[in-house]
Amino acid sequence: MSETKTIGFVGVGNMGAPMVRNLAKAEIPVLAFDLDRQALARVTGGSNLVTAAASLAEVGAKCATVITMLPTGANVRDAVLGEGGIASKMAEGGIIVDMSSSEPTGTVALAKELEARGLHLIDAPVSGGVPGAVNATLALMTGGEDAPVARVEGVLNAMGNIFRTGPVGSGHAAKALNNFLSAASLAATSEALLVALKFGLDGAAMADIWNASTGRSNATENKLHQHILNRKFAAGFTLKLLNKDVGIARSLAEQLDVRTDTLDRVSALLGDALEELGDEADHTALYKYLEGISEGRDGGKADR
Ligand code: NAD
Question: How many Å apart are CA 67 and CA 275, to the nearest integer?
C-alpha cells in the first residue's frame, strides 16, 4: 500500500522547493516547514496543495510520512530528535525519509533510536542537482527496510527514480561516493580547461570536443558551458555542501581502512577552496579557485 496522505516536508531550499512543487504536481498534499520563513512562503505561494506548518512538532503530529531535505545529518538529527522535533509528536508506525546527503553512520544510529520509538527511517539522498529536482528526474539512492520503502514508493516516484541500495544508511554511503566522483571530475575538468586556455585553445570548442569524447562527464556536460565558461558559477549547489559530502566519503574510506589517495587529495583541495571562497560560493567556483592558484593570485578572491 502506498501512502497518499499529506506528506511533511522539512527544508525547502535549493532542492527541497522544486521537490515539493513536484509532489504538488502529482496531487500529493504537502505540509512544509523551514526555519527560513521566506523560503517557506515561496513554496506555499505556488500551490494550494502546499501549506506551511508553524513548527517541526506540527509536521510530526499531522503527517505519517515526513521528508527531510536539510544541509547535514546533524541538522536532520536536531530536527527529528531535538526538543519539539518531528519525532516528539509523530504517531507510532510513522516514516521519516531523509533525502539530505547525511553521514551514513549517523543515519544508522538515528534509525536505531527511532526504531525504539516505533518509527521507521529511510535514507533516500538524491543526485541530479537543481535541474533534476525541477524535472523530477533525481536518482534516489534508497536505503531501508522493504515494507516502509514500499509505503513511500509513490511519493518518491513523484520526485525521481528509486535505486535500492540496501539497509538504512546505504543510500547515504552511495551518495557520498557519488559526490566524490562528481568533485573529482569537476576538479579534473577545471584543470584541463586551464591548461587548454593557456595553450591557446578555445574553451567553448574544448567543451564541445570533450562532450563528444571519452573525457565526457557531468562536469563537462552540465557545468562547462552552463556555469564555468560564462563565469556564472551559479549551479545551486554550494562548495560547502560538496566539501561536506567528500568529507563523508573520506571518513567512510578511513573507517573501512581503504587507501584512497585521489579522494584524500580532492577532499583537501575542496577544503582549501572553501576556506578561500567562503560558505556562499557555488561548487563550480572551484574553477575560479584553481585559476587563482595557477595565476599565483589570491584564489580568485579579487574576481568575486
Ligand atoms: P539549501 O541550503 O539550499 O536548503 C536547506 C534548507 O534547510 C534551507 O532553506 C534552510 O533554511 C533549511 N533548514 C536548515 N536547518 C533547518 C532546520 N533545523 N529546520 C528546518 N529547516 C532548516 O540546501 P540544498 O542545496 O537544498 O541541499 C539540501 C540537501 O540536499 C543537502 O544535504 C545537500 O548536500 C543535498 N543535495 C543538494 C544538491 C544541490 O544541487 N543543491 C544536490 C543533491 C543533494
Answer: 31
| pLDDT at residue 296, as a whole number | 87
Cα of 17 from ligand 1 centre, angstroms: 10
> Which pLDDT belongs to residue 22?
98
Mean pLDDT in order along the chain per 10 residues (304 residues): 76 98 97 98 93 98 98 98 97 98 98 98 97 98 98 98 98 98 98 98 98 98 98 98 98 97 98 98 98 77 46
Give the tens place of pLDDT for each residue, 216-247.
999 999 999 999 999 999 999 999 999 999 99
The total number of residues shown for the chain amounts to 304
**Residue 302: predicted pLDDT:** 44
Q: Which atom of ligand 1 is nearest to the CA of 72?
A: 32
Alpha helices, DSSP H only, in the chain?
Answer: 16-25, 37-45, 56-62, 73-81, 104-115, 129-134, 146-157, 170-199, 203-211, 218-219, 239-255, 261-277, 286-294
Task: Please name the residues in contact with 12: beta carbons below 8 A apart, sequence gap of 6 or more.
Answer: 20, 32, 34, 39, 40, 42, 43, 69
Beta strands at 95-98 and 65-68: parallel, antiparallel or unpaired: parallel
Place of cell 506528506: 7
Are 134 and 112 contacting, i.e. CB atoms less than 8 angstroms apart? Answer: no
Domains within the chain, CATH numbers bracketed: 7-166 (3.40.50.720), 174-303 (1.10.1040.10)
Q: 213 with 192: CB under 8 angstroms? A: no
Residue 198 annotated among the catalytic residues of the structure: no
3-state secondary structure of 127: strand
- Residues 6 or more apart from 256 whose CB is under 8 A from it? none
Residue bearing cell 514500499: 150
Nearest CA to ligand 1 atom 25: 14
Q: What is the pTM of this model?
A: 0.95
| Active-site pick, 62, 175, 232, 244 | 175
